[in-house]
């Protein structure tokens, strides 16, 4: 088991707060709970400098504050060359600097973190840094010939002798220490792949290999754009991100669809899936397309890197699952990171974009803030509300569940002005309370437009965790508003603060 996907040596965020406030000053807050490295320091930059955001890197006082904060968090060892700046982005929010940790001048695998300075005087740390670099000294550098290393990589992965491999010496953190490793990059054309290969430097054995290709191929299908009820005629549809090899499943790099209790036709090299609704495989092709569409919507709001971890490796979607009742229709399992759709033949959820997108949105909430991973009913209410809103906004229709429940006005409807929170929160009123949260977001969409409301809704999830409440979700909207849409007259508020509070209060009992 490697250390690559954690942040070894870094104290849990909550225990860092006192140290940061004593060292750097300002007020620090963990924004994503103890399981995520996401810390914000308010008023830190204001105390350090009055220069514009773009001048932070060149301002000694700001750099001093930043380095003090990094020291407090990561405790860099003198033997390490600390970091190199891998990317800098100047945005409307502020300046974003992304760093790669180094040991003895070599990159540490998994040792990336970001420092974000915003216009309203905050500094935020994100990423997966390694905090105990003093324990990661790999010793004397290896001196193998590059051709020897390339030959070993080709052999272990059975690559062509003509396959080009670019090499880099790295430090691989594992079992509490660091070892020298060779990292290889190789782009293949048939089948398309962009490989990352890691071999131990001492014996050239394989440690890790993976393909980072986002999309390998395209396919074609005839599908219902939304559902047989809303859009009853099949339309030609492009399928994206398909694997380019044949196999016993319908899958791509991000989504993998299988059929519960049965088989589906194997993928073909031509990827021609124009078929009738009664043909085997139609449900799986539909579910794949709807899930990919949902991924595209979220990537547009949050960026494609959001899919770089669980459960999108890839997200597994199971159709025709007889264990899922026709009443439940569909479910997302956080522990396994899988979406399961019921086997209803009359109103099959795999043919309904709103159902598939809704469960995909649950997976997104799990990825960002793990709303479904606690016993908190309020957190589950928020997960249902976010899933309803994101689905309905993407489809530009406030109805949800109209096809599967055979209710033309929707089993739930975000535009229902009569919906309010019901207290106390319980499993009995979880979905109706979820609709109340979705309705707040829909009200914002109606007043501010889908672009602004979608950004507020999706980015606010970064400020939540598995113990979130509807009140903390309101606070997360306000925080997101301050970051994305700062007020020109009040530096401590966003320009939609009053609108957010008004619509929230309107849904209280």
Rg calc: 25 Å
Report the count of strand segments.
Answer: 20
Question: Outline, from the CA principal axes?
Answer: flat
Helix count from the secondary structure assignment: 11
Protein described:
- This protein has a six-stranded antiparallel β-sheet with strand order 1-2-6-5-4-3. Strands 13-14-16-18-17 form a five-stranded mixed β-sheet, covered by helices on one side.
- 44% of the residues are buried.
- It is 30% helix and 25% strand.
- It is α+β, with helices and mostly antiparallel strands.
- The termini are far apart.
- The protein has helices at residues 13-23, 44-48, 60-74, 146-157, 282-302, 353-369, 377-395, 430-448, 450-460, 470-484, 497-506; strands at 27-30, 38-42, 83-90, 94-103, 106-118, 122-128, 166-174, 177-189, 192-200, 206-211, 217-223, 235-242, 250-251, 255-259, 272-273, 315-321, 330-333, 338-342, 399-400, 412-413.
- The longest helix is centred in the middle third of the chain and has 21 residues, at 282-302.
Short description:
The chain has 509 residues and is of the alpha+beta class. The chain has helices at residues 13-23, 44-48, 60-74, 146-157, 282-302, 353-369, 377-395, 430-448, 450-460, 470-484, 497-506, and strands spanning 27-30, 38-42, 83-90, 94-103, 106-118, 122-128, 166-174, 177-189, 192-200, 206-211, 217-223, 235-242, 250-251, 255-259, 272-273, 315-321, 330-333, 338-342, 399-400, 412-413. Residues 1-7, 44-60 and 244-248 have low confidence and may be disordered.
């Amino acid at each position: 088991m490697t250390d690559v996907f954690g942040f070894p040596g870094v104290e849990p965020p909550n225990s860092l707060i006192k140290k940061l406030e004593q060292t750097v000053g300002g007020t620090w807050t963990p924004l994503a709970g103890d399981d995520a490295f996401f810390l914000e320091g308010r008023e830190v930059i204001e105390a350090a400098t009055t220069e514009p955001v773009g001048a932070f890197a060149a301002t000694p006082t700001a750099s001093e504050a930043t380095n003090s904060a990094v020291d407090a968090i990561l405790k860099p060892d003198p033997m390490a060359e600390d970091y190199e700046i891998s990317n800098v982005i100047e945005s409307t929010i502020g300046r974003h600097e992304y760093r790669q940790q180094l040991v003895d001048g070599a990159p540490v695998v998994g040792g990336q973190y970001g420092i974000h300075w915003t216009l309203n005087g905050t500094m935020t740390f994100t990423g997966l840094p390694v905090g105990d670099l003093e324990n990661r000294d790999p010793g004397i550098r290896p001196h193998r010939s590059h051709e020897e290393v390339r030959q070993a990589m080709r052999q272990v992965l059975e690559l062509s002798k003509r396959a080009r491999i670019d090499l880099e010496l790295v430090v691989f953190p594992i079992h509490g220490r660091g070892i020298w490793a060779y990292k290889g990059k190789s782009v293949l054309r048939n089948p398309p792949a962009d490989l990352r290969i890691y071999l131990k430097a001492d014996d050239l054995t394989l440690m890790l290999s993976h393909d980072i290709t986002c999309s390998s191929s395209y396919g074609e299908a005839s599908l219902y754009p939304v559902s047989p009820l809303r859009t009853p005629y099949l339309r030609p549809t492009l399928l994206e991100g398909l694997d380019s090899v044949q196999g016993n499943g319908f899958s791509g790099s991000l989504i993998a669809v299988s059929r519960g209790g049965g088989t589906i036709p194997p993928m073909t090299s031509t990827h021609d899936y124009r078929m009738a609704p009664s043909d085997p495989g139609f449900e799986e092709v539909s579910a794949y397309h709807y899930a990919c569409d949902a991924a595209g919507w979220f990537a547009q709001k949050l960026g494609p890197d959001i899919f770089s971890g669980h459960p999108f490796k890839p997200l597994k979607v199971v159709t025709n699952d007889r264990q899922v009742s026709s009443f439940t229709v569909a479910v997302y399992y956080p522990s396994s990171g899988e979406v399961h759709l019921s086997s209803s033949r009359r109103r099959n959820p795999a043919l309904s974009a709103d159902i598939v997108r809704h469960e995909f949105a649950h997976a997104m909430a799990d990825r960002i803030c793990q709303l479904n991973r606690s016993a908190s009913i309020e957190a589950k209410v928020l997960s249902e509300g976010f899933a309803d809103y994101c689905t309905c906004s993407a489809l530009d229709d406030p109805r949800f569940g109209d096809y599967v429940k055979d209710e033309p006005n929707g089993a739930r409807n975000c535009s229902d002005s009569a919906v309010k929170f019901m207290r106390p929160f319980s499993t009995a009123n979880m979905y109706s309370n979820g609709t109340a949260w979705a309705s707040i977001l829909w009200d914002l969409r109606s007043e501010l437009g889908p672009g602004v409301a979608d950004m507020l809704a999706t980015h606010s999830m970064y400020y939540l965790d598995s113990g979130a409440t509807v009140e903390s979700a309101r606070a997360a909207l306000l925080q997101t508003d301050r970051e994305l849409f700062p007020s020109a007259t009040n530096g401590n508020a966003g320009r939609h603060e009053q609108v957010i509070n008004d619509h929230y209060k309107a849904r209280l009992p």
